[in-house]
Amino acid sequence: MSDTALAAPRSTVHVALEGRGYDVEIGPGLIAGAGRLLVPLGARRVGVVTDENVARLHLDPLMASLEAGGLAASSTVVPAGEASKSFAVLEEVSNALLASKVERGDLVLALGGGVVGDLAGFAAAILRRGVRLVQMPTTLLAQVDSSVGGKTGINTRHGKNLIGAFHQPSLVLADADALSTLPLRDFRAGYAEVAKYGLINDAAFFRWLEDNWQEVFEGGPARTKAIAASCANKAGVVARDEFETGERALLNLGHTFGHALEAAVGYDDKRLVHGEGVAIGMALAFRFSAELGLVGADQADRVAAHLKAVGLPTRIQDVPGDLGDARRLLDLMGQDKKVKAGKLTFILARGVGQSFIANDVAPENVLSFLTSELSS
Amino acid sequence: MSDTALAAPRSTVHVALEGRGYDVEIGPGLIAGAGRLLVPLGARRVGVVTDENVARLHLDPLMASLEAGGLAASSTVVPAGEASKSFAVLEEVSNALLASKVERGDLVLALGGGVVGDLAGFAAAILRRGVRLVQMPTTLLAQVDSSVGGKTGINTRHGKNLIGAFHQPSLVLADADALSTLPLRDFRAGYAEVAKYGLINDAAFFRWLEDNWQEVFEGGPARTKAIAASCANKAGVVARDEFETGERALLNLGHTFGHALEAAVGYDDKRLVHGEGVAIGMALAFRFSAELGLVGADQADRVAAHLKAVGLPTRIQDVPGDLGDARRLLDLMGQDKKVKAGKLTFILARGVGQSFIANDVAPENVLSFLTSELSS
User: Fold this and answer.
1) Among B25, B82, B244, B262, the one annotated catalytic
2) ipTM of this complex
3) For binding NAD(+), which residues are annotated in this chain's numbering (chains A, B) (predicted)?
4) A105: helix, coil or strand?
5) Collapsing DSSP states into helix, strand and coil, what is residue A113?
6) Is A151 close to B129, i.e. CB distance below 8 A?
7) Which residues contact B18 (CB under 8 A, 6 or more apart)?
8) Hey, of B129, B167, B251, B340, which one would you mutate to test binding to chain A, going by the most A CBs within 10 A of its CB?
């Protein structure tokens, strides 16, 4: 690692959780500087978990940095893609961490996107009933969303993230340089979650994104600002509601629809990646809100227009191939975690930046809305 | 369920944990009375997990009681035995609970011994990132130990309980009638954990057990007293140290040796069950303490004499078949969770009721002790 790299300007966002608060560091050079940044955590061993793609790009400099920092590091590389969020891969990762004798005071380090973060985070949560976790997200999606807040988990045939744990990291290192190796499609998918924070509770941020999204895509200060603003927004929500008993559900804006779409394509990321599902889901949430008379159709159009402008999908029909009918999509929502007593919970909106939790959405209303969307 | 059954005298032990305290109810008729006892928890669905042996004896009356109590109940039956504490069975149980649509406000109910409690408890901990758990232990071991305190988990090829979670139950129902169907060997194995509480910090209880163990084995008030005293002792330790950062490690008296022996027989419960491993482990811990000059040999003899009197094993050679040499047993201890920086943690004793945590036991001392035990 170079001293110059670590000396470059960084943003720090603190997640204020009683007894287990932690920092999110955002800036360039953090992968190469990891060894030094982890010293304060006082571990002896670090079990790195990553995927094949990320390993090719970033594993060697990371391992060199950890070893230079005096840490005994081992690594486990899983196949890239959502299919690794399975019991089978979780078992492999767990056994690999045990084989490398990661003990209670040691660290699991997740180097990669949301899949690696969710999988390695869950492995850390259950290894010896819980060891500390460092998240080192290498995608925009993971940097602004999944690496912060402690949600970890795997998928089952019944749906996504239905098995998992709340396990807060001890540190998040978001290396801004890592995003320069991302394919445009992945960057766009992550951008959906950036826009989400504006739509939930920050109309000014959404307006700023409408004006500055090109610069965010190009990199530089606007990108760093967008990442830090997103992390700060999420940190606030998580600090107020760690276990999703209330406000935190707002972060699911677009996700109930989105998860159903992901399930409908069998988690085939050639057809749909998570952020694209969220983009369509947010557009649907605003149109559904308009149909329920909660918000003007102009606001729903504005949301869809911005997502479309950056190149994101906004309609169910934007997903290639057959997804089944409205009834099938509704059934796939029923297995989402956000079900209570037969009613569906949706995040709906009264305007941009004015989202709210609706706990008692009747399945019939959703069915008729989806039917009209599919035939539009 | 009969009103008479529930009206019979019960002992209640409260586990005082900030924000998630719960009661342990001990008495007759609790399986048949479960439907009524669960009403205050306000769930709609109960996903019962049990094993083949327990299902034959207790599942029908339990399901009838739950349904009479207005609860939608489903059940999953796993093979009996330690082998069910695996990733494969965990995945099956998780999928079964998802298929029966156990939601966040619902309950997982573990009906059975320690294996079922650990497995179902872990499934509850990770299902939708955590749903509530009711423990209904049907063995003495589970009633006095594993059902109280929130430790859950499965085994891997690297050792026992190396993957798991802390997940406190919302209620524990210990049906005293259920113990009358236990084979003597299982009752004895559970008794090892009862005696453990005396050895840790309650010399008067150990003395009482020396005088009254026959009545505990026969049933009736002495048995109930022994169970309640054990639960109360454990509840106190757990309330003071939920996550085993200190005092709770005392509950591992006999377990570091015991787990190594269990691993050495490949968790073959024909050769050794957990409580037998603990009995041998406690005898070894006292003899090791004597060898280190911490306690008189007469105290070690007293402990072994009582365990032997009730029919429990006290020497490594009491386990049938070959266990390997001292080096192998030591290596199996090294993968125990209780390792820190290459030193071994043992619970040693300065007397009956005077156990303490020794964090810095040198592996060489253990090796020489085991070598002498194996050649004695």
Assistant:
1) B244
2) 0.86
3) 114-118, 138-139, 151, 160
4) coil
5) coil
6) yes
7) none
8) B129
Place B209 in a pLDDT band, splitting at 50, 70 and 90. very high
Q: Does domain B186-374 have CATH number 1.20.1090.10?
A: yes
Q: Check CB contact of B220 with chain A, cutoff 8 Å.
A: no
pLDDT in tens, B120-136: 999 999 999 999 999 99
B292 touching A (Cβ < 8 Å): no
| Cβ atoms of residues A68 and A48 within 8 Å | no
- Residues A23 and A38: their CA atoms lie apart, in Å, by 12
Letter for the amino acid at A184? L
B280 min Cα distance to partner chain A (Å): 24
B339 in reach of chain A (CB within 8 A):
yes
Put simply, whether B95 touches A (Cβ < 8 Å) is: yes
Say if residue A118 carries a ligand binding annotation: yes
Nearest alpha carbon to residue B323 among B272, B278, B367: B272
Neighboring chain A residues of B153 at a CB cutoff of 8 Å: 126, 129
Q: Is A138 exposed, middle or buried (0-12, 13-18, 19+ CB in 10 A)?
A: buried
> Which CATH number, 3.40.50.300, 3.40.50.1970, 4.10.375.10, 3.40.630.30, labels domain B3-181?
3.40.50.1970
Cβ-contact B31, B178 below 8 angstroms: yes
**Lowest-confidence pick of B71-80, B137-146, B341-350:** B341-350
Residue given tokens 């497995």 in the structure block? B119
Binding-site residues of B sit at 114-118, 138-139, 151, 160, 193, 255, 274
Instruction: State the Cα–Cα distance between residues B278 and B262, nearest whole angstrom.
Output: 9
pLDDT band at B160 (very low <50, low <70, confident <90, very high): confident
Which residue from B99, B162, B163 is facing A158, i.e. has the nearest CB? Answer: B99
**Residue A288 contacts residue A256 (beta carbons within 8 Å):** no
SS3 at position B59? helix
Query: What span, in angstroms and rounded, lies between the C-alpha atoms of B257 and B315?
Result: 11
Distance CA A49, CA A72 (A): 14
SS (H, E, C) A42-99: CCCEEEEEEEHHHHHHHHHHHHHHHHHCCCEEEEEEECCCHHHCCHHHHHHHHHHHHH
* Band of pLDDT at residue A341, cut at 50, 70 and 90: low
Tell me: is residue A193 an annotated ligand-binding position.
yes
Q: Give B259's contacts (C-beta < 8 A, 6+ positions apart).
A: B159, B160, B277, B281, B332, B333, B336
For range B280-298, the mean pLDDT: 97
Which residues from B are below 8 Å from A248, CB to CB?
none
- The mean per-residue pLDDT over the stretch A29-33 comes to 93
- Please state the domain extents for chain A: 3-181, 184-374
Residue B335: pLDDT above 70?
Answer: no
What does R_g of chain B's alpha carbons equal in angstroms? Answer: 20
Architecture of domain A184-374 in this structure: Up-down Bundle (1.20)
By C-alpha distance, which of A126, A108, A1, A131 is closest to A50?
A108
Cα A144 to Cα B50: distance, rounded to the nearest angstrom = 42
Same fold? B3-181, B186-374: no
Q: B58, B85, B234, B287: which one is catalytic?
A: B234
- CA angle centred on A120, ends A119 and A122, rounded to 5°: 65
Q: Which amino acid type is present at position A38?
A: L
**Res. B82: pLDDT tops 70:** yes
Query: Residue A157 is nearest to which of B95, B340, B341, comparing CB atoms?
Result: B95
Token digits of residue B176: 């005293």
Of A104, A129, A340, which has the smallest distance from its Cβ to B153's Cβ? A129
